[in-house]
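HOLO CASE FILE
Compound: iron/sulfur cluster
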Amino acid sequence: MHNFSYARAADIDGALRLVAQPGAQFIAGGTNLLDLMKGGIAIPERLVDITQIAGLAQIHQLPAGAIRIGALASNSDTAKHSLIRERHPLLAQAIESGASAQLRNMATVGGNILQRTRCGYFYDTAFDECNKRNPGSGCAAIRGYNRNHAVLGASESCIATHPSDMCVALVALDAVVQLRTARGARAVPLADFQRLPGDAPQTDSLLAPGEIITAVDLPSDRWLKHSAYLKVRDRASYAFALVSVAAAIDIQDEVMQDARVVLGGVAHKPWQVPEAASLLRGRRADTNAFREVAEAAFQGAAPRKHNAFKIELGKRAVIRGLSLAASAGANLT
Ligand code: SF4
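Model generated. Tokens follow.
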């Protein structure tokens, strides 16, 4: 393994100073970064350990009512926190469907957002072609085995998918990423923060050099009563999604007023289905209405040799996910 130095930051300002050195990179739970380093895909000169920064693992309510999840909150602590379970059960469901209990104990919310694709060609340096690992080299997956790859929003440069379950729910919940650099703070909706591959698949997000995620805010709990996360995968645990659906419906007097549908496992980032709101508004929850959303979700899908099954699977998952959301929360007041 490539030699690197290690420094531990005591606070955010110190972390930003330490990471300013060329080749420096933050480490928190390390559940993805250490794999990347062992494989020779990430080669940092310095690791800046941010796990001891006070306050960054807190989950609390802001004065205006939003919930703030600190970037260092573990996936496990987030999923079992009373504020999340009571107000955002969709997020708790999504987190608990991901990885294993051991990984969820180590992985942080900030790290989950920044984790890299699990495309096998990205991790296998025996393959020269990977635009994400080596820009301009090509994409081995396009001509290779692409069963797990994207059917929506891909490009001729990269057809990888984002592996997170948590992020799919966060996008459905309008999560906003809080960021800091030495020059100041900014906030970016998660739906915009993660990016499609285009002709620069080496860049996964809008994270600027030297920038740190400090928290994720959930602005509203209007999706509390009728939401569901459905994950379809090859085995019942410790597997990435072939397709997943975060579905949430605002139902008043048995009539749908608004809806969110976000897909995982099908694109380079959580894939929003904006047509869901207009297709469902003013209607009663039923399979026919949900089928229209499913058709809209996969319009424009572009399958590769081995992943066309994701389109039919995804449509059925959308219908099932919306049905689960509609019937969820019957015992909530
Ligand atoms: Fe690399 Fe993306 Fe192609 Fe996978 S799909 S080989 S990550 S360029």
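CASE NOTES: The chain has a mean pLDDT of 96. DSSP finds 14 helices and twelve strands in the chain.
CLOSED: yes
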